[in-house]
Amino acid sequence: xxxxxxxxxxxxxxxxxxxxxxxxxxxxxxxxxxxxxxxxxxxxxxxxxxxxxxxxxxxxxxxxxxxxxxxxxxxxxxxxxxxxxxxxxxxxxxxxxxxxxxxxxxxxxxxxxxxxxxxxxxxxxxxxxxxxxxxxxxxxxxxxxxxxxxxxxxxxxxxxxxxxxxxxxxxxxx
Length: 174
What we know:
- It contains 2 helices and 10 strands; from the N terminus they run H-E-E-E-E-E-E-E-H-E-E-E.
- By secondary structure, it is mainly β.
- The strands form 2 sheets. Strands 3-7-6-5-4-8-9-10 form an 8-stranded antiparallel β-barrel. Strands 1-2 form a two-stranded antiparallel ribbon.
- A hairpin with a 7-residue loop joins strand 9 and strand 10.
- The longest helix is centred in the C-terminal third of the chain and has 11 residues, at about 115-125.
- The radius of gyration is 18 Å and the shape is globular.
């Protein structure tokens, strides 16, 4: 992890500048480092390949297959890379995303305890927390994720679809 991200993740208070990051939990060198047991570590390491579209109408609403409430907090952003925490319904994750390359970018995502996610949102994300409802809409063999934003971005509706490979042909709905 780049020092700038680790430093932003470090807790406030006195710290000698030596940062230790263990499965996304950062502490000062002289503090206790929490290690998750191997069986509790759940990581999804992948290449995120996605396309996003700003929606002009709400015709998608008749095809909703499910939904989820999401709170996203931006912890750090640097040179096209970012670290974010997410609470989606009753689960929490931490994600590190690399620089964009075409429609894809490397992504590492880890499950974290809900209490950690709440604390990170409260103490490390400042005004960089977005709230939205995500609707799942199947179309042409893919599941589209339609994000309807609340709060600061109220009224913005974005459709996102993820692929298994960059050269996949996308069939757009009407």
